[in-house]
Amino acid sequence: MTRTIPPEPCYQPPSFAINVLHVLEEHGFEAWIVGGWVRDALINLPSHDVDITTSARCEQSAKVMRDAGFVVQETGTKHGTITVISGGHAVEVTTFRVDGNYSDHRHPDEVRFVDSVEEDLGRRDFTVNAMAYHPERGLLDPFGGRQDLQDKLIRAVGDPAKRFAEDALRVMRAVRFACRMGFEVESATHEALVEAAPGLADVAQERIGKELNGIVASGRAGWALRHETDVMCAAVPEFVPMRGFDQRSTWHSYDVMEHTARVCNAVEAFTAGVAPLELRWAALLHDVGKPACFVLDDRGRGHFYGHPVAGAEMAEWMMQRMGLPGPLIEGAVALVRYHDHVVRPTARSMRRTLAVMEEAVPGRALQLSYELMDIKRADAVSKQLKCASYAIDLDQMDAILREEQRGDMVLRVTDLAISGKDVIDFMGIEPGPMVGMVLSRLLAAVVDNEVENTREALFDELMIQAQELD
Ligand code: ATP
Ligand code: MG
C-alpha cells in the first residue's frame, strides 16, 4: 500500500512553540521547528515535544526570551541548548551547530556553532529526523526525509558508517525508530548498523535500556530480534547464546531466538497490539535462562530444568543494569519466573495462581495472573504444533479468572475472615512466627477450596490444627 506524505505537516505547530519562534525572529534571528515534531506531524502522529533550532547563540536566545517574559532554564548551554517554558510546556531551543569529533563514540568532544540551518540538519542522525518546518517558510528537507517517510525507510544522513562510528547509540535509535514507525532500515544503513553494532559495548547501560525499552514498548521487539539480530545481540550480550540455539526437543520447532521472537509477536496478537509493557518485557526475556540450563538426556533430548528461575534472576539483573523502573522489573520478572508454572482450568488452580502472583508482587495478583495466561498462550503457540491446543485451555482459565474476580478473592492472610489476634486468643499462643505460620496454612486451605472463608469454618479448622499441634 502506498501512501502520500503531504508537503506540509498534517497539523500546525502548537501556539506555545510558535510564540517562542516568533520572539526569536522578531529579534532578527532565524528559527525553525525541527526533528521529531516535524517527522511525526508529517505522518499525522500527534503530541510530540517541540524542539526549535535557531541562529541565536544561547546567551542571545536566553536574553530575548527572558525579556519577553518567559522562564528560561539553562539546561545544556555547552551544547547550545536552553529550555524555554512556554504556556506550561518545555521547548528546547538549540543554536545551529555541528558536532566535533566523537572520540568516545558517544559525546561530541566539542560542538561548533554554525550559521546555516542546513548545516545543522546535516549533523542529525536520520533523514526523517533531519527536516525543519516554519509556519510561513514551510518545510525544509535537504536529505529527502519526506520521501523516506513515504517509503517507510530509516536512512542515515550522509555516510552511514561514519555516522554510526561517531555515535554508536544511533545504532539502537535506528532500530527503535524502525520499530516505532513500522519502517525498514534502508539497506546501506542496515549494513553499516551491523558493522557498527559492536560499538554498543561502549555505550552506557542506561542509554541502551532507554532505547531497548522504546523497542519493547513499540510491540515490535519480535521484528527487531529477527531483522536486527546483530544489533539486539550487541546491545544485550545475554541474547548471543539464544541465537541459533537448537533445543533438541520434540516440543520445539524453533531455536531459542526464533521462539522468543514468535512469543513477542504472539503476545501482541493475543492482546490486539496493546500488551502491557511488563508483559512485552517478559516475552522478550522469558527464555533468556535456557542456554545456561540446557542438558541432554541419554536419549539425546534437550531439557532446560530450572530455566524459569534462572531466567528470572538474569532478567532482574539485566533490567536493573539497564536502569529500568522497579515496578516494571518486578512485574516482568514475576512473569518470567512463573511462565512455566503448571496451571489447569480449575478454580483451585486459578486461586493458587492468584495467591502465587500476589506473593510475587503484592497488590498485583489479578493483572499479573491475566498476563501470565497471555504469556503462556503466546508460548504455547510458538513451540510445536502439538502444544498449540493448550492455548484453548488457557482461554478457559481466563474465564475462570473472571469468575474469581467477581467473587471475594482471598489472596493474602489479611483477606481471611479471622485475624492474627483471633489465632492468638483461640490457640492461647504468644504473638510470634507461629501465628503467621498458622494463618498461612489457613490461607492455603481456603485457596484450595478446602475450607470456606467464614469465621465459623476457620475456627473449626483452627481446632483441627490445634489438635494436630498437641
Ligand atoms: P523521540 O523523542 O520521539 O524519540 P526525537 O526525534 O524527538 O524522537 P530526540 O532524541 O528527542 O528524538 O532528539 C531530537 C532530534 O535531535 C532528533 O530528531 C534528531 O534530529 C536529533 N538527534 C537526537 N539524538 C541524536 C543523535 N544521537 N545523533 C544525531 N542526531 C540526534
Ligand atoms: Mg524528542
Quick take:
The protein has 470 residues and is α+β, with helices and mostly antiparallel strands.
Describe this structure in words.
The chain has helices spanning 15-26, 36-42, 58-67, 117-122, 145-151, 160-166, 169-181, 187-196, 205-217, 221-227, 229-235, 256-270, 277-285, 290-293, 307-321, 326-338, 347-360, 365-380, 390-406, 420-427, 433-447, 455-469; strands spanning 31-34, 51-54, 71-76, 81-86, 89-95, 97-99, 111-113, 132-134, 138-140, 153-154, 184-185, 295-296, 302-303. The protein is α+β, with helices and mostly antiparallel strands. It folds into four domains: 15-151, Beta Polymerase, domain 2; 152-235, Hydrophobic Seed Protein; 250-411, Hypothetical protein af1432 (Orthogonal Bundle); 413-469, Serum Albumin, Chain A, Domain 1, CATH 1.10.246. The N and C termini lie far apart (77 Å). The mean pLDDT is 93. Bound molecules: adenosine-5'-triphosphate and magnesium ion. The site of magnesium ion has 2 residues, from loops.
Topology of helices and strands:
Elements: H1 15-26, E1 31-34, H2 36-42, E2 51-54, H3 58-67, E3 71-76, E4 81-86, E5 89-95, E6 97-99, E7 111-113, H4 117-122, E8 132-134, E9 138-140, H5 145-151, E10 153-154, H6 160-166, H7 169-181, E11 184-185, H8 187-196, H9 205-217, H10 221-227, H11 229-235, H12 256-270, H13 277-285, H14 290-293, E12 295-296, E13 302-303, H15 307-321, H16 326-338, H17 347-360, H18 365-380, H19 390-406, H20 420-427, H21 433-447, H22 455-469
The protein binds adenosine-5'-triphosphate and magnesium ion (MG).
